[in-house]
Amino acid sequence: MTAVSSSSPADEHGAAQDLADRLRRELDGEVAFDDYTRHLFARDASMYAITPTGVVFPRHAEDVAAAVAAAAEQGVPVTARGAGTSLAGQTVGPGLVLDLSRYMNRIHEIDAGNRTALVDVGVVQDQLNRAAAPLGLMFGPDTSTSNRATIGGMIGNNSAGSGSVRYGMTIDHVRELDVVLSDASLAHLAPVSEAERERRAKAATLEGAIHRRLPEILNENASAIAEGYPKFWRRAGGYRLDRLAGDGPFDPAKFVVGSEGTLVVATQALVDLVPKPLRTVIAVGHFISTPAAIAATDDALSCDPAAVELMDRTILELSRQKIEYASLGSILEGDPGALLFVTFTGDDEQLLVGQLERLTALWRRHGHGYHTLKAVTAGQQGALLKVRKSSLGLLMAASVGSRRPLAFIEDTAVDPVHLAEYTRRFKAILDRHDLTAGFYGHCSVGCLHIRPFLDLTDPAQVHTMRSVAQQIKDLVREYGGVNSSEHGDGLARSEFNRELFGDDLYETMRQVKRVFDPDNRLNPGKIVDAPSMTDNLRDPALPPAPPLRTRLSFDVVGGMRSAADRCMNIGLCRKSATGTMCPSYMATRQEEHSTRGRANALVKALSEPDPRAALGDERLHEILDLCLGCKACKSECPLGVDMAALKTETLSHHHDLHGTPLRSRIFGAIRSLNRLGSATAPLSNLPGRIRPVRQLMDRLIGIAPARPLPRFERASLLRWFRRRTSRGHAVTQGTVVFLADSFTTFTEPGIGRAAIELLERAGWQVQLEASGCCGRSSLSKGLVDDARRKARKLAHTLSSRGEPGSPIVGCEPSCLMTLRDEHLALLPDDVAVKDVAGRVRQVEELLVEAIDDGRLRLCADSWLAGRRLLYHGHCHQKAEVGTAATIALLGRIPGATVDELDAGCCGMAGSFGFETEHYEMSMTVGNDRLFPAVRAASEDTVVVATGVSCRQQISHGGGRRALHPVELVRSALHP
What we know:
With 975 residues, this protein is of the alpha/beta class. 43% of the residues lie in helices and 13% in strands. The protein is built from 48 helices and 25 strands. It is globular. The protein starts with 8 loop residues before the first helix and ends with a helix.
């Protein structure tokens, strides 16, 4: 029976306020009880949502203890979380959420001699591995979420990953833990001798009770413990009494691994490290079907691999649709129905290649597969590893509206010898319910992550989900397997634990919970005494989206809210060392500054009775404010959440309610301003150098005094093009329309001149289009109606220029990409817009073709020969089309070597870096990776960047002049 609270909403609000006030007084960390923060932490990467009372961001263990004590006094449960990427609902709860990832993320010590690391629980797996790598070490468990998964989260889940066949699970690598117990006392858990355990057991404390009662429970329930657990080793469900009952010293540290924060709140961990292999080689078997790939697993396991991973056709096809993973398609053979990635690691590459060759021969002899790709070098492996680690996100990208691939039967595992038959019967269950699913996972340990597509807003499909979960649970028991093998029990599987473990063992686990947590305050409802798996579902609880007329077209079922609600919280936007998404999160490490946080905030606003008013909310505006509009989420987020477009639409509604700021209007009119600046140069460049004028601009408009202003050129590209004499080059390629963008045209005209001269030398007749602005700047400031007018005018002009189908090119990626992206969202039914979008090409593409065809010849002894070209790509270019064409063009320069920086967003983001309140954030983003890489480059290294904002930022923050690729190619052109 469920108890019904007699307290009123007002009483509950008052109690929450009292708790928040106390926490703010007693903690060094931050406290957030506002509605938006609570909504952001109501979700994890599962299908569940529970709104907490409030959220705390502790700075140290004493903060955690104070929070647990305060919550206990008010009868409020506590849920600890790291990155919030749990798939079974472990990190959502109704009480106080502790986010241990923001501040508790220090690596205190790495002891190479003992191969251990002492870390805060908020340390990210890749962060630890980067620190350990110079010592030849790494953390053994290797999750696909390693770029955001915290060590604490891995301890809570008992995570494993692709290499578990060799390295086991997290429980095998935890030595000692500092924890906060349910009574808010601090404890140190570690293996102890029997004498030491008896000494500790005498203490009249909760820690003493734990050391006293656990051995008693083991003795009283020895038979249940010996017989109740599944025999398969890869287990992440229930409490690990079997490990505690084994030989060796009493080890409460290992015992609490996998307890999902229901027994203790871990704050610091001493973990084992393992030697990092020097070499890796990968065999990628190509198979006509998933069963055929699984059938080849035994041969793979006989060759002593470090991992054997499956990916089915569903995920392969999804990867081909994403620019981020497009390179995979070029290296595969034919159209495989499934791939098997077999990884060999060690220090002797010759030995590893021998293992790879042996496997290839075995597969050939036994008729497994039709092709084996051999990836020996890091370059050959890059695309393979990127896609393999993104299987979950790619599968999630196939969601349509509220029909999503759901995690509820995705974590079963059986002995690999049964995997083929087990998978066949598994699929038969899905087929009986007319369900489709993607298949991927760890064949080496019999674990496949199978996620059926369901729409939980339909009650009939909720019933189907439960029925399938019960049937799969019965199937896995039949094979002696486990229901939770690395993702944990959470809300999705805990209710089945009594049946899976039996009454005796389950009651023993309940005893354990009562010993550690007598008042059931730590993450209640997980592992034992759980609600139904169909309670607290996220999608059914979301109210229907109220009608909202948007200015942009959101091409998803359900409009703007569904565009935001595509986010399934897998947290890739919380990575911090690679790629571009999400630059503001990388700078602040705050959930609300991640793409996930902003998307969830928008879901809340768009679910309000009056979404138009909610979009004008100042708290929402604060959450969206630091979005740089880099569009990295459009490509790097597997679900393609386009936060730049969502922010633009939101800003337009904010302006409707609060008016449009003067600064936004100024930046929206940037083409007119730049044209005027060019016409009045050099006088127009003086205000940027006069300190009182800059201070006035700061006070009146909000332009940062420290930011250098662009330098206008009187000899603009337009003036040069009108006045120049024809060079008389033969036209062999037809007409190309060159977009004179609103920036380089007036401030860096040499770039446009170089591009036009190259195109003409390559046989093109160039038509310069300079009649108007694309609207990019207006969109960035939420001036959508103004952008639409500009888009319509420019698109109709461009469509009428040149020959039908002739290419449209330009040198500024943000403007060029606007023609093929935002214009379609502004005017989805406009024929001219569609025509222009289909004709857009990068100028680099045309130049590469010309060089390869011999129409352009570059000097072998140009000033660039022997030099390193350090290239930083523009965010919009990377998001829309990738940088391959630019890299190819730079690679055609004789004698030059090209290095593409993985430096994320430069931080300038158009007007963002000019704005006073954003200047420091802009520089922080640049300082993350870009500025250090530029400063570290030798003097003879040539810095290259396609974006005008990128070049401005590199000059200001990196102290180097960056050139556009076409300038380099023009300088190397044969006379």
